[in-house]
Design brief:
Layout: E1 3-6, H1 11-20, E2 25-28, E3 46-49, H2 57-65, E4 70-73, H3 83-86, E5 91-93, H4 100-116, H5 118-126, E6 144-148, H6 152-163, E7 167-171, H7 177-183, E8 186-187, H8 190-196, E9 199-202, H9 216-220, E10 227-230, H10 239-247, E11 253-256, H11 278-285, E12 289-291, H12 300-318
Parallel strand pairs: 1-2, 1-3, 3-4, 4-5, 6-7, 6-9, 7-8, 9-10, 10-11, 11-12
This protein binds nicotinamide-adenine-dinucleotide (NAD).
Nicotinamide-adenine-dinucleotide (NAD) binds at residues 76-77, 97, 100, 103, 148-154, 171-174, 203-207, 209-210, 231-233, 257-258, 294, 296-297.
Length: 333
């Protein structure tokens, strides 16, 4: 039985992988994959990693020295891998789509919470405070959603917004004109999207072009009433610039499922610690900011799909099919 070293294991990962695994000897480690832990891959031809693991040149060398040939990413994104360095050293397979609904629905959940201030009413009524002062929101119906990235998740999010009676404008360097025509939505450039949107939701990957797509400059071009929603990757937003814009009331609210310095904090119980990230602490303390811990993917359906696709990726590789692997990640893709 091939051995797989499985990093950054949470109870829900083990549960879903154990449910579908018939063929592999999976060694579950709670540690994240990085230069301190890569040695745990000894004796394994495959490792399984997730979004906050560090797969840089040092780690890649350590894995290869240990005899690892296959890196199974149990996620869609791969911005945490040095792909250029990994070329010709490791085969990298990912799960390109597991549930676009999970992420798009979470984005809408953040919008609804922020707008209707459900996070505040929940706390009030638990304390028998039934006052509704200060909880006024606005109708989403008739408002404009600006969607950056119209791939699988962006399209589902657009459909949800249309269901709410919103107008949608979208930006994507590779526009899907058939989808836009079918749904009656418009593509626009970023200048127009920033200027006209009431809700701005990010559904693009993190690349050198999208890093800090939400910056001091773009925040200054938005409506004062704008909500910024990020369920994609933390570094799409310059968080210090966002914090300044929120404090100076240049934008109205932010819903963040990802954060640029999330790797040391998200997915861990740090409730007993002093958090030494001032930007994160200040964002968490604001009434018009909701932060969730990179949980947008976390539905039963998505966890099952992640386990099934990751295991079938391993099956394809170990059956000897090395050239024509459907979910392969290659440098320059
Ligand atoms: P996808 O590949 O189907 O779509 C991404 C879209 O972004 C594509 O249409 C692409 O053309 C577009 N794009 C590329 N460069 C762009 C740019 N410079 N500006 C605007 N758009 C650009 O991906 P997807 O499945 O829809 O996922 C989108 C992102 O969601 C992923 O990259 C990942 O970072 C994130 N994600 C987050 C979670 C979570 O739990 N929070 C889970 C899954 C995915």
């Amino acid at each position: 039985m091939e051995k797989i070293a499985f990093f950054d294991t949470k109870p829900y990962d083990k549960e879903s992988f154990d449910r579908f695994n018939k063929s592999y000897d999976i060694h579950y480690f709670e540690d994240k994959l990085n230069a301190e832990t890569a040695a745990l891959s000894a004796g394994c031809r495959a490792v399984c990693a997730f979004v906050n693991d560090t797969i840089d040149s040092r780690v890649i060398d350590m894995l290869v020295t240990n005899g690892v040939e296959l890196l199974l990413m149990r996620c869609a994104g791969y911005n945490n891998i040095d792909l250029k360095y990994a070329k010709d050293k490791l085969t990298i397979l990912r799960v390109p789509a597991y549930s676009p609904y999970a992420v798009a629905e979470h984005a809408m959940a953040l919008i609804l919470l922020l707008n209707r201030k459900i996070h505040k009413s929940y706390l009030r009524t638990r304390d028998y405070n039934f006052s509704i002062n200060g909880l006024t929101g606005f109708d989403l119906h008739g408002k404009t959603a600006g969607v950056i990235g119209t791939g699988k998740i962006g399209q589902v999010f657009i459909d949800i917004c249309l269901g709410f009676g919103m107008k949608v404008i979208a930006y994507d360097p590779y526009p899907n004109h058939d989808f836009a025509a079918d749904r009656g939505i418009e593509y626009a450039d970023l200048d127009r999207l920033f200027a006209e949107s009431d809700i701005i939701s990010l559904h693009c990957p993190l690349t050198k072009d999208t890093r800090y797509i939400i910056s001091d400059d773009s925040l200054r071009r938005m409506k004062k009433s704008a909500f910024i929603i990020n369920t994609s990757r933390g570094k799409l937003i310059d968080s210090e610039a966002l914090l300044r814009a929120l404090r100076e009331k240049r934008v109205a609210a932010a819903g963040l499922d990802v954060y640029e310095e999330e790797a040391d904090v998200f997915y861990e119980d740090r409730s007993g610690d002093i958090i030494d990230d001032e930007t994160l602490s200040l964002l968490v303390s604001m009434p018009n900011v909701i932060i969730t811990s990179h949980q947008a993917f976390l539905t039963e359906e998505a966890l099952s799909a992640i386990a099934q696709v990751t295991l079938s990726n391993a099956d394809e590789f170990f059956s000897g099919r090395k050239d024509d692997l459907a979910n392969r990640v290659v440098y320059g893709m």
